[in-house]
Amino acid sequence: MDAIFLQILNGLDKGGAYALIALGLTLAFGTLGVVNFAHGALFMLGAFCAVSVNKILTLQQIVLDPTQKTAWGTPLEIRTPYVESWFGDFGLFLVDYSVPVSLLVTIPFMLLVGIVMERGLIRHFYKRPHADQILVTFGLAIVLQEIIKHYFGANPIPQTAPSIVSGSANIGLWIGLGESVVYPWWRLVYFGFSALVIFAVFAFLKFTTFGMVVRAGMFNREQVSMLGINIEKRFTIVFGLAAVVAGMAGAMYTPVLPPDYHIGMDFLVLSFVVVVVGGMGSLGGAVTAGFLLGILQSFASMNEVKSIIPGIDQIIIYLVAVVVLLALPRGLMGRKGVMED
Amino acid sequence: MSINDFKLDRRLLMKSGLIGGAALTAPMHFIKDAHAADFCNMPAGKSVTLGFNVPQTGAYADEGADELRAFKLAVKHLNGEGDGGMINTFKPSSLKGNGILGKKVEFVTGDTQTKSDAARASAKRMIEKDGAIMISGGSSSGVAIAVQGLCQEAGVIFMAGLTHSNDTTGKDKRANGFRHFFNTHMSGAALGPVLEKEYGKDRKAYHLTADYTWGWSQEKSMRQATESRGWKTVAAVKTPVGAGDFSQYITPVLNSGADVLILNHYGKDMVNSLTQAVQFGLRDKQVNGKNFEIVVPLFSRLMAQGAGDAIKGIFGSTNWNWSLKDAASQAFVKSFGAEYGAPPSMAAHTCYVQTLLYANACEMGGTFSPTGVVKSLEGFKFDGLGNGPTEYRAEDHQCFKDVLVVRGNEKPTSQFDLLEVVEVTPRAQVEYDAKMLGGSLGPVNAKPC
Fold it and tell me: B421 forms bridges with which residues in the sheet?
């Protein structure tokens, strides 16, 4: 029972990341009809926003101490963080909360990246075949990866969660399962954050005029344009919004998984499976499939399951995708006519 | 006798041919390697080319970059430039600081991408196109074994860089290949007594193992080392290489009854699994009335940087560490630090040492021929390269030397001061019978390309 409960929690936080990326992918596809293989790179850029903010906040003043030497004979460097010497305790608080604080930078930065990407590159490929879109966005993803690797190196860069949520929550005691059921606080925070962002995106599309116009445009772009509404401009903003969602997902994921330049590509492939299983163009389908596949993947990793079917943990997502697509060719919540031309 | 009396019979023709042939080739017999292409990529001009095959892209690119720095430094020192580094402490040494056998050392590089096929392709290019006479490098056992096989087929020497699997000098060993780095058996043999001393005999271990040749080798060695000391293995779970999120593999540990987690992971996998194990509160846990412990059998300082605070207090083993105080290590750290502004990693150290050992073997045998180099290296005993007295065992081409048991530094004094040496395990404790790991060296390949 304990093991099953823990695997459900694992699935939920992993599924949260899948759902957020798949949500952004579906937004871009549903509005612009673009298959964006650079979406994983946007997740990675968000993660490196958190890394950059942390690096800036921990910038150190270096003073050479000629009385002490390094092992190779140069004067020893004495390092003091600027933020600590300038702001005292508040500076230390900023460093401790660098990951959530980084969202203040990530949101505008990713919005800008999304808009520039759409206006500068993607819009030239609207009327081109999906294969061309995949090639150009995949190429862009590789370029972004290499830029990040050049500046940050190839190794993962660890980020710490704020000290108040750095330990583990004794969930077992809360629900009467005993002391052995513990779960990292930050993963619970991440799950809550994912749910909040997903709710916010749905609310934005459902309850605002802007969202209503976008939904109408997704349904029939020409008709909305004929009403005198600049739907292209709104779709550009939606693309930016998709980039923000991916970026926030990446930034908040850094304490879970130390980011490296390849982190986006690792998530991208699985997220595309999530989108296809959920149904191309269906926001609800993307979110549902994200959590579903996350939980299934966690269960497949249990020793009890692996002892029956060895290696199932590595193929479960693709196996489910095959079964779902055989039974429901449009995915769980796919709409008729999407990607069927 | 007039010219008309001269008769050329068959006997005379054969005699003349033999004498003439011997006369024509006579000078060559007195000059080693003077025959045209006696062996693959025999140096003809005033220089000799070495091939350094390291991961320049991919997950181990930082480690590869450090290896490349060490190779460049070794070449510089061999050519008589810089402060000479460990050439000054290496003994017995035949190195003269004028290249190798008087020829200036040049090098070419390849990118292994930490993929066997890419590594073989780049090594092949360096041998066939660039004329490399020796290949060195690598940051993965899978890559090292693949490239070692290629060098054997091509007839050049392979001086392995960072490769830790038993198989490199075990079942996959080759006559043209040599490894200075230690192996998983040695890690287990060195760690076993320290773990028993620190954590006792009554322990239950849970292994998470990278699912490839090195991971299997490391798990086997650690199980042998711990089970022989009374520990029980609760479970040994294989994890896919590059899994990223290990949470689904770590949560079963919580209720397994294990009180030690052994992470047979390296590189990015080690950084991720260790960080996440600490996040799941394993190190704050009490199981069976004991503190829960984590062990990482193979430590690298470059990887330790990635794991941040999670590494503190955790035991592992390493081939070499820059904090060693012997004259050779200090000379190397001084030379490397002055050149690059940071101390060398263990990967850099082994690559530097391998380059010097190859050059010295050529000088000792007075030849670049693989046969001569192998003969010089087999059974070669040396000191002054940072690991104390060391021997290249003839039976399997594995170096035997002391092994370091290290612990993540609780109070680092600098960004590089991440590992604390807790024990120098003597060579005798980690030595084993060459037949134990199987395999056969086979004959040396010294044929022309």
Answer: B406
User: Which 3-state string (H, E, C) describes A145-174?
Assistant: HHHHHHHHCCCCCCCCCCHHHCCEECHHHH
What is the count of residue pairs from A and B with beta carbons less than 8 Å apart?
Answer: 123
Question: Measured between alpha carbons, how far is A151 from A133 in angstroms, rounded to an integer?
Answer: 27
Residue B256 has a CB neighbour count (10 Å cut-off) of 18
Nearest to A7 among B240, B248, B271 (CB): B248
Please name the member of B251, B309, B414 whose beta carbon is closest to the beta carbon of A7: B251
Domain C-terminal end among B300, B318, B336: B318
Q: CB distance from B327 to chain A under 8 Å?
A: no
Statement to judge: residues B393 and B339 lie in one domain: yes
Contact B356, B349 (CB under 8 A): no
CB B100 within 8 A of CB B382: no
Instruction: Tell me the per-residue pLDDT of B253-281, one tens digit each, with 9 for 90 and over.
Output: 988 899 999 999 988 888 889 989 998 88
**ipTM topping 0.95:** no
Q: How far apart are CA B273 and CA A1, in angstroms?
A: 24
Only one residue has tokens 């060398």, namely: B344
In a domain, B2, yes or no: no
B251 and B374 inside one domain:
no
Clarify whether residues B174 and B189 are in a common domain.
no
Cα(A160)–Cα(B307) distance, integer angstroms: 11
What is the percentage of chain A residues whose pLDDT exceeds 90? 37
Model confidence at B28, pLDDT cuts 50, 70, 90, reads very low
- Of A155, A187, A314, Cβ closest to residue B306: A155
Facing B244 at nearest CB: one of A149, A180, A266: A266
Q: In this structure, are residues B236 and B292 in contact, taking their beta carbons and an 8 Å threshold?
A: no
Q: Is residue B407 included in any domain, yes or no?
A: no
Question: For A339, which DSSP code?
Answer: T
Q: Measured between beta carbons, which residues in chain B are less than 8 angstroms from residue A7?
A: 248, 251
Residue B344 DSSP one-character state: P
Give residue for tokens 């879109």. Answer: A133
Range of the domain at B52: 47-182+322-401
Length of chain B (residues):
449
Chain B interface test: which of A14, A182, A301 (most B C-beta within 10 Å): A301
Q: What is the DSSP string of A129-145?
A: -HHHHHHHHHHHHHHHH
Using a CB-CB distance cutoff of 8 angstroms, which residues of chain B are in contact with residue A315? none
Q: What is the mean pLDDT of residues A87-100?
A: 91
Alpha-carbon distance B98 to B77, whole Å? 9
Written as six digits, the tokens of B319 are 């081939």
Instruction: List chain A residues with CB under 8 Å of B333.
Output: 71-72
